[in-house]
Amino acid sequence: xxxxxxxxxxxxxxxxxxxxxxxxxxxxxxxxxxxxxxxxxxxxxxxxxxxxxxxxxxxxxxxxxxxxxxxxxxxxxxxxxxxxxxxxxxxxxxxxxxxxxxxxxxxxxxxxxxxxxxxxxxxxxxxxxxxxxxxxxxxxxxxxxxxxxxxxxxxxxxxxxxxxxxxxxxxxxxxxxxxxxxxxxxxxxxxxxxxxxxxxxxxxxxxxxxxxxxxxxxxxxxxxxxxxxxxxxxxxxxxxxxxxxxxxxxxxxxxxxxxxxxxxxxxxxxxxxxxxxxxxxxxxxxxxxxxxxxxxxxxxxxxxxxxxxxxxxxxxxxxxxxxxxxxxxxxxxxxxxxxxxxxxxxx
Length: 347
Prior knowledge:
Layout: E1 2-10, H1 27-39, E2 46-47, E3 56-66, H2 75-80, E4 87-95, E5 106-115, E6 129-130, H3 137-142, E7 149-152, E8 167-178, E9 181-188, H4 195-207, H5 215-222, E10 237-244, E11 251-255, E12 259-264, H6 268-271, E13 273-281, H7 283-299, E14 304-309, E15 319-320, E16 323-324, E17 326-327, E18 333-336, H8 339-346
Parallel strand pairs: 3-10, 5-6, 13-14
Antiparallel strand pairs: 1-3, 1-4, 2-3, 5-9, 5-10, 7-8, 8-9, 11-12, 12-13, 14-18, 15-16, 17-18
């Protein structure tokens, strides 16, 4: 059995999104059908990002397992013969069977285009949000810096989502204007349901002058969807790329108005150990932060996660999901592990 990784570009106009849906044709369904025709075998396709109906992609990632002997880099040519013109594979390669597109550390970049002019342009109708009221891009740009870093983006998440942890880290954000088109780009480790489109809807309110740029920070702090702007239409959004982080950062230092911590993963790959130091954290965010950091370090390969808690909250025997923390001989340091990983390592 082999696992093949695909980088797929598509025009999402005629589809109900990536994921299989009962109310229309999806990208996943179309690519899977093409694979079955090519391989003459059952195929399970796993995508990295479940883009919504009407959203486009230049570089979504998906994997499937196969018995086929077609070279990994040749799948792109063979599969494209069975795909429609609005879906095409850009790259293909063989990856380890342990590779999972939603379990690797990566940075996703989205771009949202707004056509800001008095009259629409027909050829842009599926690729940009036509907005006739004048937008001040300088005002919109001033609202962006507060989005950088790690924050609770609950205000910019659709209320229909079932996700519990709404904290995400944004590494880069920009807004440029070229002629009548305003392009908003945002890069992060992950995004909530409709997060980019709600941020854009909020930026539009700021660009029109209805809200001040400082409102973005205030809305972020509210952690309540009702305070943010409307969700912008899907057609302006494109998943530009998913860039995988090949190596773990030895040190990760994060700090915002509500929490502060540092992660050490320099010994994770060699010794199976990782360390987290919680320097400060407000009460409402503490338990979620503890669990999030522990899961992250464990997912990155640590068999043992050591937590140094400078806030004094952590206690011997304290539980967080399937982790139980035990006091070490070092003051204010606790250790935990994922028992499932330990059992696999012993085998």
